[in-house]
Design brief:
The structure is a single chain. It contains 16 helices and no strands. By secondary structure, the protein is mostly helical. It has one domain. The protein is globular and about 60 Å long. One of its GO terms (molecular function) is acyltransferase activity, transferring groups other than amino-acyl groups. Keywords: Acyltransferase, Membrane, Plasmid, Transferase, Transmembrane, Transmembrane helix.
């Protein structure tokens, strides 16, 4: 990897990685309608397909960690190239305003959908109380805090400290601090969604800061990539081990503290993958085209809008497929969620107001052609 040119221009490989991490959340939410130890809106009485659910559980151990790592890295890139003010204005338009826009309609819509599923009466107090739920929007709250509330000096100081460490020490730091926040999450469990979001935000702040530091210290990347921890076979073996642990927990219906063994293993995997995936996808030579650009540009909007779609269709589709087709049931729900949310993205893109609300650049209007030119 030539570090002097690291992210010197748009890297479609890393953009696709970030989009893939976002869209995998749609599949995850579609799969939560299968039986398991989770309180979900609608749970179908189907074979949970332990191999499939263990695979998704394995992805869930690192998906958001790598996403925030990438977010921190790209944040440092923008700040160094265009300045702190541009970055703050950009995060306000691309993160905070979409958060507010989605929060205005997602909670009451989910209250309506839940009422239909459970056949419960609606009340005005219930509508108001729905706004206390963040649903899948929590990550934008966390990202807004990291981007707009935490002083830039914190990231600069952290980058200097992390820049003094070797890659093994960096990974160990992520694992230790991340797991400390994981423990803190259980200490505040049941105290309200906003309180519980504090340790979650702190956990992902660790990865955001590490990604920020990676770009600041990018001259060290060549040394990092030579580390034995970045061996693809080692990363693959650890990934397989985490999947096997997730499968073992699901297959044996393990409860209590023992079920978090796979989570602890996943914390090591997420730390290693945060670096390995960046180094790997940065090297991938992908030519930008309209399809790839559309995937990258639409990913966030699809994720914001998919939630009520996949939950509603998990309920509606349940009677259409045999009970033993659990994987097909999830994949069909996932496809519907992507398709309908993608259609909404196209409609949003056409409206200047909707584009502003969801952080998109509105579609440029074609300049009017003079009458003389048309004759």
């Amino acid at each position: 990897m030539k570090t002097h040119s690291f992210l010197s221009s748009r890297n479609i490989g890393l953009d696709l990685l970030r989009a893939g991490l976002i869209l995998e959340g749609v599949l995850l939410h579609a799969s939560r309608s299968l039986p398991g130890e989770n309180g979900w809106y609608y749970v179908a009485q189907r074979d949970p397909s332990e191999i499939f659910t263990a695979l998704l559980s394995m992805f869930h151990t690192f998906r958001m960690e790598v996403f925030f790592f990438l977010s921190g890295m790209f944040s440092a890139l923008i700040i160094l190239r265009k300045g702190q003010k541009f970055f703050s204005d950009n995060r306000l338009k691309r993160v905070f305003i979409p958060l507010v826009s989605a929060w205005l309609f997602i909670p009451p819509l989910m209250y309506f959908i839940a009422g239909q599923m459970n056949q419960t009466p609606y009340t005005f107090a219930g509508w108001l109380n729905s706004y206390t739920m963040l649903h899948h929007l929590w990550f934008l709250v966390s990202l807004s805090v990291m981007s707009l509330a935490i002083p830039p000096g914190f990231y600069q100081w952290s980058a200097r400290q992390l820049g003094k460490m070797s890659l093994p020490a960096l990974i160990a730091t992520l694992v230790i601090l991340g797991n400390a926040c994981f423990v803190l999450k259980f200490m505040v469990k049941g105290r309200g969604e906003l309180v519980e979001l504090i340790p979650i935000t702190l956990r992902f702040l660790v990865y955001y800061t590490a990604g920020y530091a990676l770009y600041i210290n990018r001259e060290k990347i060549a040394h990092y990539t030579r580390s034995k921890l970045m061996n693809g076979w080692l990363v693959g073996a650890l990934t397989l081990a985490v999947w096997a642990a997730c499968y073992y927990v699901a297959h044996n219906h393990i409860t209590g503290v023992a079920k978090y063994i796979s989570v602890m293993m996943g914390s090591v995997l997420s730390a290693m993958l945060s670096y390995w995936l960046v180094f790997t996808f940065e090297r991938i030579q992908v030519k930008e085209n309209r399809v790839l650009t559309a995937i990258v540009d639409s990913a966030l909007i699809i994720y914001l809008l998919h939630y009520p779609v996949v939950i509603s269709f998990s309920w509606l589709l349940d009677v259409w497929l045999p009970d033993n087709f659990s994987v097909l049931y999830v994949l069909f729900d996932f496809a519907v969620g992507i398709a309908l949310s993608g259609l909404c993205y196209m409609l949003v893109k056409r409206s200047r107001l909707a584009s502003f609300m969801f952080g998109l650049k509105p579609k440029d209007k074609k300049p009017a052609v003079p009458v003389e030119a048309r004759l």
